[in-house]
């Protein structure tokens, strides 16, 4: 404490300044300054009198600067509170007892007033601290409540969004199911109508044809018989009559001849008689001739009788023929009546069937409408629940906002009260400070005298603001909590030194900080280098060269037969890859509902890191069906999965991660875009504008004019005639366009049962894919509802198709999939054939076997032949550790939670060096489990069979367990 004192200052003022407090919190003793009148004047010339007072734990040092003057008073001694002398000189003046009492009273009043001031100041400081503490608590409470409200609001929003998403998904699922049900109903109705029409046509045509044939046969036979009989009668009658006429003419001629002879003889005899010739000889000759004539007449009569008999016989045969013809007519009439009756019954049956079909369709429509109404009602109810939940959430948010506003208002009131109390405290502190300073002001002509008292709390400094900040920083005279100290320090900003001159303020080199907006930052991040910059031009040129180099490498890689990788990954044969491919089917049946290419492209890095080497894309062409399997314009790649540019970008992302892109191409059939003059859809459009000559002639629905099909008929679309040279040429050019311009590396061939494998060989040799898979789908053999053990005929048909392609293409191992359905249900003995090899195509031709568990047809939302859900792990453990080329389905990898399981099995396959031709040695295959050694470095066990490599006598080497899934499967690798 520094005190400035004049030698003529009153005692009250001095005593007012004489009480102080030490730094240890204890109050020091009061000090009395005694004045004595001196007869002589003590003269000092700027002489400083210094005395040091030791009292308690405080050291009090008093400096006095006196001036030379005429006053007769001098400060001679310092007296402690109890009246004892601390220091002084020998000339001590006696003070009266009254003056001492008055001084003590004044001192007590001063002490009391000082104590009040100190108490008031301490109280104000404590109130300020409490107010700040309450303010901090209020702020913390409000912040906590705000965080809770925000968290609850976010949770409610998330729950609402989740429920809304679920409701939308359920809505989409219901809509899809409803659409599928409608489609199924329509297709069923169409099929029923077609079947009914075909059955009626077949039955009616068969019966009509049979009746017509019978009637025509009867009519023909009757006509033939009648004609033959009439011909015979006519011939015989004409012959008889002609014979009779001829005979009669002969007889008449002979009679005339005889009569002429007789008349000649008579004339001659007359002449002879006249001449004297003998008449008796002439008479005898005439009699002889007459007898001969009678004999000839009798002969003619007998022949006439015979002719009459023959005529009667022919007449009787004619009557019989007429009777038979009449019977034939009766039978024909009966057959016609039967035909009319059958036609009437068939018509009635068809009408009845049509009525039943209509009733069934009406029933289906009613049930569909009922289901649609129920679904709509359920969806509406759920939507109302969601809206109610939204309203409840909004109401909750509103109430929380109101509570938050009320809390903010209360906090504002408390802050205002705190500010008011702080203001009052500051006013009181300023009043106390002014009171303390009012008695110690220096005169105008006096020089400054500094009195420094160690242990004081207030330093009388020249800077007014610093005193306030000192008081706020130090706080009350007690230990301040750490949080309060941090808070007090935080409200004391440190400002830079003030600029007193305007020119100095403008001459400063500092620049105001102007932060860019978020959109500006984003635009900066997306901004491309400017043209003209030499360095930037070099960078751009380098990037362009790098892109061209990479694209050239990819083109060369696609066009070469052998890949430039490692020696063990050399391509073995065309169309079968390196033998170490692992294919990923990158879509399902519902992928067309989203922009699939943009969703699939970012997954390229993840697939590559997981060990996938090839990605099977959905059909890329424009299609009547959104899934892509009813293609129309082959050169239009803007499909439901995305645009052509998005497809190219997705393929580039796959190539950037060293993944092959396999295109799903449909070569068996193609949907027409125009109708012919007969109203049949068999005119194709687009770049490949084919006509009916490109359709096989035995397609029953589209009036094709080509050659007969070399395979099975696909009835939903026109079947392409691959025997036509122009068709094969166009397909070869299209496949090469997909390879070179779009970027596909291989093919998945759809429905290859529809055309010969020889054409597939031609297409593969022309397009030179890195990998090719054919979908040869055939039914397995069943007996009594159970799968037969022997499936050699089934896998033989698949092998025959691969043989027809010259081994240039692989095929899906449908046999292995069907056997796994039953084998993994404690029938592991199905996994070994009588020769000790794996069943399926894998056991006969593993390098051409593409094993799989599920695809877009068998699984997804179609579910025609789904793999057992609880056996997926075992299924992938089997196909990923065995030879052949395994396929991983999209749903299993990303939706069923099997990503880590599949990745682990792929890693075991990679470490063991298993490829499509690896050897398989089966040790056990029974009801309990399956054990096999694949190659030389991997052993796999399926099922709960108690086995490990140490229990096998014929298994040599040290084995380490790599995967352990208990009773499902276990995998060991050779150390």
TrEMBL record:
Superkingdom assignment: Eukaryota
Cofactor annotation: Ca(2+)
Single annotated GO MF: alpha-amylase activity
Reactions listed under catalytic activity: Endohydrolysis of (1->4)-alpha-D-glucosidic linkages in polysaccharides containing three or more (1->4)-alpha-linked D-glucose units
Keyword Hydrolase on entry: yes
SUPFAM superfamilies per UniProt: (Trans)glycosidases (SSF51445), Glycosyl hydrolase domain (SSF51011)
Domain Glycosyl hydrolase family 13 catalytic, chain residue ranges per copy: 581-915
Annotated family: Belongs to the glycosyl hydrolase 13 family.
Listed name of the protein: alpha-amylase
Organism listed in the record: Aristolochia fimbriata (White veined hardy Dutchman's pipe vine)
Phylogenetic placement of the source organism: Eukaryota, Viridiplantae, Streptophyta, Embryophyta, Tracheophyta
